[in-house]
């Protein structure tokens, strides 16, 4: 579970209820992310949980195929607290994951 999963989570949540906090932050993706993480934990019953994020473009793929992901929009900063990545990272930190 990582950045791609978080992206899919955000798209899935945006189709749903439009969960917005009192400060205007979209919390739908975070809610879906937490639910999916809890589901994985419940099903697999791991002794430890680690969530990994990839960072930046793939230099190897870029060398092989320069147009790799050329049509994609710029991703938001992963550390920005107001993005679904920032909210998920904050939740994981508070959960000691």
Largest sheet: none
Tell me the β content: under 5%
The whole-angstrom Rg is 15 Å
Structural class: mainly alpha
Q: What is the overall number of helices? A: 4
Number of strands: 0
Average residue pLDDT = 79
Order of helices and strands: HHHH
Helix amount: 40-55%
Low-confidence stretches: none
Shape: globular
Distance between the termini: 13 Å
Description:
The chain contains 4 helices and no strands. The protein is an all-alpha fold. The protein is globular, with a radius of gyration of 15 Å.
Topology overview:
Elements: H1 3-14, H2 28-44, H3 59-64, H4 84-94
What's this model, at a glance?
The protein is mainly alpha-helical and 97 residues long. Helices cover 47% and strands 0% of the residues.
């Amino acid at each position: 579970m990582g950045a791609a999963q978080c992206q899919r989570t955000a798209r899935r949540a945006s189709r749903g209820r439009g969960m917005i906090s009192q400060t205007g932050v979209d919390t739908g993706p975070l809610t879906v992310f937490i639910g999916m993480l809890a589901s994985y934990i419940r099903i697999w019953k791991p002794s430890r949980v680690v969530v990994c994020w990839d960072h930046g473009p793939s230099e190897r793929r870029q060398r092989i195929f320069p147009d790799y992901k050329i049509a994609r929009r710029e991703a938001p900063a992963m550390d920005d607290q107001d993005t679904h990545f920032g909210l998920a990272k904050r939740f994981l930190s508070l959960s000691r994951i």
